[in-house]
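Following up on my earlier message about DLL. Here are the inputs again, as you asked, copied directly from the submission form:
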Amino acid sequence: MIWDRRNECRAREEVEQLQLERLQSTLNRVYRNVSFYKKRFDRLGITPDEIQSLGDLAQFPLTAKEDLRESYPYGMFALPLREVVRIHSSSGVTGKPTVTGYTRNDLQHWSQLTARVLSAGGVTKDDVVQIAFKYGLFTGAFGLHHGAELIGASVLPMSTGNTRKQVMIMQDYKTTALMSTPSYALLLARFMEKEGIDPKSLSLKLGLFGAEPWSESMRKEIEDRLFISATDNYGVSEVMGPGVSAECEHKNGLHLYEDHFIPEIIDPQTLKVLPPGAEGELVLTTLTKEAFPLVRYRTRDITSLDYAPCPCGRTLVRMKKVLGRSDDIIIIKGVNVFPSQVESILLEVEGVEPRYQMIADRVEGADTLELKVEVNERVFSDEIKNLQNISTQIEMKLRESVGVSGKVKLVAPESLQPVDGRAVKVIDRRKK
Ligand code: DLL
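Thanks, got it. Here's what our run produced:
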């Protein structure tokens, strides 16, 4: 179902006209109200009036996460705190958290956008939606919660953790749609298997997953094990939270809500804008945000944009499923290793789960890679010989399909602790 047909199915010229008007007003607002942007624009000798077409946006400076950290906590807000009615922040795993604020209007837009996400994923007012994202400063749960209520679905604000209770609620309250990270969905499937609960006995039919990269093989695994249809949705807390883009029933790219955000793809090295279809880093400019507008924000996520029409009727550009972040790619002895490649390998190996952590280090000047992988319950109590077989198998596949040598360390089920319900897949000790 399409939640907002008028805005999701506009003619392209109309979308672009609307974007241009909103961009002009956003640039004017940040120039007037955010000293960071005033200084940056002045230094480059550009003024907001120079925006005559969308192509002119490329002349404006990029904003990076480090810039937000320097303005911690409220330095980049375009309005005084008295206008701000909600504050969220990132988890701050990689440094100081970044803080984001919303006015009442921002919250209304946010609910509209997450309602689009839920509708695109098949949720209607007849659904019982279990939200297994963490409620708190993390944007995931609250953002999706309000969209689900707007649609009129019955919302179960479960938050993360307590898998036994999540499954009990699913059984007793007849949950039909689950919203969580894809890795948590797999953990639920594994728990049910262990406890002898048949997922077919549940009322669950839809899974709307996001907040971390997941491959097509992971989608298949989740769909097959939970007997549901799974769609992907994407968002970034600094830009809004969930509600930036989402897959429709065709599962062929995520429709990006261009009436609220302008996407660009840049080469992460040269920082030049790349043509449609090219793969690179996604950069987003907000068009309607009042409290915390962002110009050309570098997401670090690697994707590409497809402007071809989609059979669902939405005219919004589709971004390809994000399979990794530029800062999650680790280079081992010159070879790029993407977490998604490791995930695909693990899905082919019997006895392990695609729950892993890659640890890069440097020993006596040479790069090393350690791969911690969770085994399943059955294998955990197995003989050492079998465990060795599994490690060797993974190490071989790593060499053959990725081209790197790594040391595999099998670890107990559920021993790799997530942060905000999200797996920490990469640790690069060489950066210290
Ligand atoms: O993760 C917002 C969100 C919550 C999106 C719930 C979807 C569902 P942050 O904590 O700021 O915000 O993390 C943003 O997570 O730059 C990506 O690297 C990654 N990410 C988010 N969604 C996806 C996705 C929320 N569907 C960072 N696929 C982003 C791949 C994703 N990566």
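One observation from looking it over: The longest helix spans residues 12-33. Hope that helps, and feel free to reply on this thread.
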